[in-house]
Amino acid sequence: MKGVVVLPNSPYYYYRFYVKHETDPKKRRKLSPVKIEVTKEDRRIYENNRKNGTKIPYRGNHALKIKLEGFRHALVNRDFEVLTGSQIRTKLTPEAGKNEYFNIKPDLKPSTIRIYNHAISILNEAIKPKPICDYTAADMGKYVEYMKQPHKKAKEGFKQSSMSIITMHLSAIWNYFVKQKYCAENVVLIVKPPAALPHPIPEPDLKIIKEYFEKSAHKEWNYYVKFLLYTGIRPAAALEQLWEWVDFNEKTIMLFNQKSSSYFFFPLYTDLEKLLKEMGPKSSGKMFSFKTYDSLKFFPRHMNVLMGKKLNGKDDPKGVKRISTKYSLYNLRDSFATGMASKMDMSFVRELMNHSDDRVTRKHYAAVRTNVLMQKIDGKLEAETEQKKQPEEGEKVDKN
User: What is the pTM of this model?
Assistant: First the structure.
């Protein structure tokens, strides 16, 4: 255990630390007693180290680890105050700090505010609220572990992707706390996001989904699903699409990239043009009547129907074909991109998906393209092998 010292005539552990702001280098090294008794195992380690000249680290116990974490954190705060000449404001809680942050950031999107509120709310559940400067890395470790456990906000615990988003937002607001001198350092542990591999819908299931919505009495549902499938646009971004952005003469449509808050031109190819004309094009206004993302819950509900579950307590329609697993609207984007990657060069796929960098496209879809090439090579080799097996003209064939 780093920094822990055992002395021959003391029953307690000691903690070795350095005072950075001490002017005399000889006085920077300090020893402070920790009122926790040395374990028998660590006492044996001390004797062996002393006898054999080794430096085996001490193991300590849980109480010692907690004590040292708090001690180190207090040292960081003290050094910060001495070196900067500024006193840390100790009475502000994360909840109060968050509200202050909102006041100086009036342009935050509602979705971003919701995540910030979510992050602080979970923090208050995981750890009893206290001054910002009193939170430690160990507290943030407990925070992450709490999110992994089942609780009222997530019956099966948060997924890694959700924890990544939540901790990144908490870290951003903690950076503000550091700038405001509410604490000396950002102690938030950011969960690494999972590998974002595409999950296209297999062709048999995709065919069932398309046929199901084509038969639906709600035509707009069918139009919306097909629009995502034909453009690869993000589900929420499609809600912002306007008819003014469609140019049937130039065969182009302008799509909204929600992630970068930008726009890009997309080819109005045959299937997409046919779909837009079927929708009954207008001169202006939004293409879809869905007002919020919550309006799109029709898709997961009907995925349940295709999985054989009941809808609104009623029996599922008879004769409905079954899909192998439940899909999300985002899987339609993956299906579009994967389909394009199997037919064209990566540079074209990047333009169609409006990725910011070639590396993003290669990271997600290069394997698809490589697999297609491999199948073509294998297919060609198999064809050549079969051709070699065929007897040449005039050659006798041994039928035995």
Answer: 0.57
Tell me the CA distances in angstroms from 110 to 102, 134, 216, 336, 361, one per residue in order. 11, 29, 33, 29, 29
How many beta carbons lie within 10 A of that of residue 309, not counting itself?
Answer: 11
Using N-to-C axis directions, what is the helix angle for 137-148 and 62-84, rounded to 10°? Answer: 130
Q: Are the C-beta atoms of 38 and 13 separated by less than 8 Å?
A: yes
- Please write the tens of the pLDDT for every residue from 35-88: 889 899 988 988 898 888 888 888 888 888 877 777 776 666 655 555 555 555
Query: Which pair of structure tokens corresponds to residue 44?
Result: 């044996």
CA–CA gap between residue 312 and residue 264 (Å, rounded): 40
Q: Which residues of 198-225 are buried (b: 16+ CB within 10 A; e: fewer)?
A: bebbeeebbebbeebbeeeeeeebbbbb
Q: What is the pLDDT of residues 248-288, one digit of tens each?
A: 999 999 999 988 888 999 999 999 999 999 998 888 899 99
Q: Residue written as tokens 């901790």?
A: 167
